[in-house]
Each structure stands twice: as structure tokens, then as C-alpha cells.
């Protein structure tokens, strides 16, 4: 089995990483189907020198059971969230009708505002075969380089040969979809989604910060959903790990999930776990204070470095 290792133990507030401890962690990501299933994942053997595991999208009610099954490791829940999804089995009109009236009104206003700002030069390009996806990547990379996802989270659209090869293979097999939104011929937002067994995966997304006030990513996402509902054989749109207002707004359901850290019981790891517990507690308190004072928008800009 090929193991994916994490890049350390991050002490993070929103998108901003304050510092990282040098810890070698085996990443065990659960798919949406696995999160639905609820069975405990089988942890691979821990390689020599590794400090533990980070299990993502674990059903929240199973965290205690996995911690017990891990046998003496130090458990720490890093975050609790809903893993949202949208059921693609019906038509777009039925899906759109079950979103809240507030969501529909907001999306309509955002689309109208963006269209007005573009001077009538708003368009969306769609990509699916290998040649089209190669053209998409060349353009979307220019947008990705400007995004907070790439600058702060190191999760922009990849440029490595393995990703390009996988994208080409998916294009040849028809198992990827991508979109670009242009404002007056300037690429403003992109979305790339691989497809596995009928599930469309929300993998890489970003928008040019200069258009942030016009919500190009949200407008693009709605149009992408419209396209996906028009296809046969697609079952769900997986919004993947983490929360987000647009995920809640555009989903039809979700699974209560958590990210669980399991550390080997060494002295250094015990100190790291204690420090992490204090840090996470402080961040949670700060979030509650910000919410009570109504400063969420300012806090979001600070977290993203805007």
C-alpha cells in the first residue's frame, strides 16, 4: 500500500498557519461512501519514524471507537464539521426548488451583479476531454497562483507531472469535469472535479482576488451544478472535508464528521498534544467571542490575509 504522509502538525487559525511542528503523520482520508458506511477504517501499519495518523472525515460518533481500537495512542479531535453532499439523481429545477428562498435570492443577486460588472461579457467555458483539460489547466493555473488556497494553504491547482498525467487519463476516460468563468475575457474563477463511481468530487477551486466582491466562484459553482444535473450516471456531488457557507447552501444533506489525530505515546508527542489542546481551546474561545461581537467578516479577511 502506498502511504500518503501529511506535511506536519499545523497550528492554524482558519486559512492562516501560525506554525507547524515537524511531525510525520500517515494520512487516512475517508471517502463520502466510507463516511456514510460508518465502519471503522483499517489503519495501515505505522512506518518506522512516523508519529501517528490523521484520519479525516471520520463519522463523529466513531471517534471514540477508533481511538480505543488504536490501542494506547494519544487521540485528539482536530475539528468537527459536516461533510456535505448534493443528491444529483433528480433534475436541477427540483434541486434548486429545495434550496432555501434566501439562497436562491442571494444567488440571483450575485449573478446579476457579476453580469452587470462584466458589461455583458460574462461567459463560462466547460472542459472534459484530455485536450480540453490541458487547455483548462494552462489558464486556471494563472488564477490559482493568485488565490489564498495556494498562498496560505498550499492547495492550489497542482503543476506536478503525476497530477497532469492523472488529469489526462481522466479526460480520456470521461471521469473529470472543469469550468472557467471569464469576466470581460479575463479568467476570474475555476473549478476542477474528478468523478469516481458516479460521485463528483469538489477538488480544486479558486478565484482571482480582484473579483472577490463579485462572488465569481459561487456563480460558477451554481452553473456547474446545472451542468451536472443534465448528465446521466452521476449520483452525488461531494463537497469533501470542511465547512463553508456555500457548501451548506448548495447541499441536500451531510454526514457529521471529524478529523481525528492519533499520536504514538512518546514524551514529545504528549507535549505536542497538550500544546495543541490549549491552542485549539483558545481558537474556539476566540471564535465564540468574534461571533458574539458580530465581527465574522473582519475575522475572515484576517484569516485569509486579505
**Which radius of gyration do the C-alpha atoms yield?**
20 Å
Helix content: 40-55%
How far apart the termini lie comes to 41 Å
Uncertain ranges: 302-306
- How many distinct beta strands? 13
- Helix/strand-derived class? alpha+beta
Strand content: 25-35%
Can you count the helices? 11
Backbone shape: globular
Report the order of strands and helices. EEEEHEHEHHEHHHEEEEHEHEHH
Please tell me the overall pLDDT: 88
**What does the largest sheet look like?**
11 strands, mixed
What does this structure look like?
The chain is α+β, with helices and mostly antiparallel strands. 42% of the residues lie in helices and 28% in strands. The strands form two sheets. Strands 1, 4, 5, 6, 7, 8, 9, 10, 11, 12 and 13 form an eleven-stranded mixed β-sheet that branches. A two-stranded antiparallel sheet has the order 2-3. Mean pLDDT is 88; it is low at 302-306.
Features of the shown structure:
single chain; 306 residues; alpha+beta; eleven-stranded mixed β-sheet; two-stranded antiparallel ribbon
Amino acid at each position: 500500500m502506498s502511504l500518503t504522509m501529511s506535511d506536519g502538525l499545523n497550528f492554524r487559525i482558519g486559512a492562516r498557519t501560525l506554525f507547524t511542528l515537524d511531525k510525520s503523520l500517515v494520512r487516512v482520508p475517508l471517502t463520502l461512501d466510507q463516511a456514510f458506511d460508518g465502519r471503522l477504517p483499517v489503519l495501515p501499519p505505522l512506518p518506522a519514524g512516523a508519529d501517528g495518523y490523521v484520519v479525516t472525515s471520520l463519522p463523529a460518533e466513531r471517534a471514540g471507537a477508533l481511538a480505543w481500537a488504536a490501542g494506547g495512542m494519544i487521540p485528539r479531535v482536530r475539528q468537527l464539521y459536516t461533510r456535505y453532499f448534493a443528491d444529483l439523481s433528480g433534475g436541477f429545477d427540483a434541486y434548486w426548488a429545495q434550496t432555501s428562498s434566501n439562497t436562491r435570492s442571494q444567488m440571483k443577486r450575485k449573478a446579476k451583479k457579476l453580469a452587470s460588472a462584466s458589461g455583458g461579457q460574462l461567459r463560462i467555458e466547460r472542459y472534459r476531454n484530455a485536450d480540453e483539460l490541458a487547455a483548462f489547466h494552462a489558464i486556471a493555473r494563472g488564477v490559482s497562483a493568485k488565490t489564498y488556497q495556494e498562498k496560505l494553504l498550499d492547495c492550489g491547482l497542482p503543476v506536478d507531472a503525476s497530477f497532469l498525467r492523472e488529469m489526462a487519463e481522466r479526460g480520456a476516460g470521461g471521469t473529470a469535469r472543469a469550468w472557467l468563468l471569464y469576466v470581460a475575457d479575463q479568467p476570474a474563477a475555476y473549478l476542477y472535479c474528478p468523478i469516481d463511481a458516479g460521485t463528483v468530487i469538489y477538488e480544486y477551486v479558486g478565484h482571482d482576488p480582484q473579483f472577490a466582491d463579485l462572488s465569481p466562484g459561487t456563480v460558477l459553482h451554481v452553473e456547474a451544478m446545472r451542468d451536472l444535473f443534465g448528465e446521466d450516471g452521476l449520483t452525488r456531488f461531494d463537497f469533501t472535508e470542511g465547512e463553508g457557507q456555500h457548501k451548506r447552501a448548495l447541499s441536500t444533506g451531510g454526514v457529521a464528521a471529524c478529523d481525528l489525530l492519533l499520536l504514538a505515546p512518546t514524551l514529545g508527542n504528549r507535549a505536542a498534544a497538550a500544546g495543541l489542546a490549549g491552542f485549539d481551546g483558545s481558537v474556539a474561545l476566540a471564535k465564540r467571542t468574534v461571533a458574539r461581537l458580530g465581527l465574522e467578516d473582519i475575522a475572515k479577511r484576517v484569516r485569509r490575509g486579505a
